[in-house]
Amino acid sequence: MSRTKGKAKPDGFTVKAFMKNSVVAGPPSTGVFHSQSSKPTTFRTYYERRELPIAVDYNNRGQNIAWKVDIEKLDYQYYLPLLFHGLCETEYPYEFLARQGIHDMLKRGGPKILPVLPKLIIPIRNAMNTKNHQVMCTTLTIMQHLVASADGVGVALVPYLKQILPVFNLFKNKKRNLGDAIENRRQRESIGDLIEETLQTLEHYGGPDAFKQIKSMIPTYSPA
Q1: Measured torsion, CA atoms of residues 165, 99, 189, 195, in degrees rounded to the nearest 10
Q2: Is the link from the previous residue into 93 a cis peptide, with omega within 30 of 0?
């Protein structure tokens, strides 16, 4: 029990809470929306060891990736999951290299992407579970690109949605600015709107079972 300006501040649902001049203390924060700190990722470790074929292209003011090998010759089973582990990064250049590297590989991966999908689920889930808005928004955008990147990816992702969607349900109705990192690109769109957009994309590419899986995990979801 604490005191505020001479008044007792007991915990709720106690005898002292009904005493004269008592001001009941509110419940403690659950921290359910608080971002979780993440350890340095495998992606960062490999990049710092110079074991990844990417670097920042400073000739373009650091806005592009310089690939040291042809993307189409990369082993997607090895490199694409490594880049997805980098989704948890928030510092430059790691965040930039992981995000842009994934987009580059998805653009040119074609049929190489579908066989790698099972290895991408844990990195996606870990990124969403950080509850860091920058990380979550990057991951949501990546997911939209992933399901549209090659035939069959959206359908193959459906059985894994139960591992990914719990955080969607938590933040679906959370309306707030996403931050400076993406403010210009998404025009202050709320994370709830971005989640809604991603769910619609998952349903569109996921085939007839996608809606049922999404609805079972997020009862308030309804198609556009």
Answers
A1: -10
A2: yes
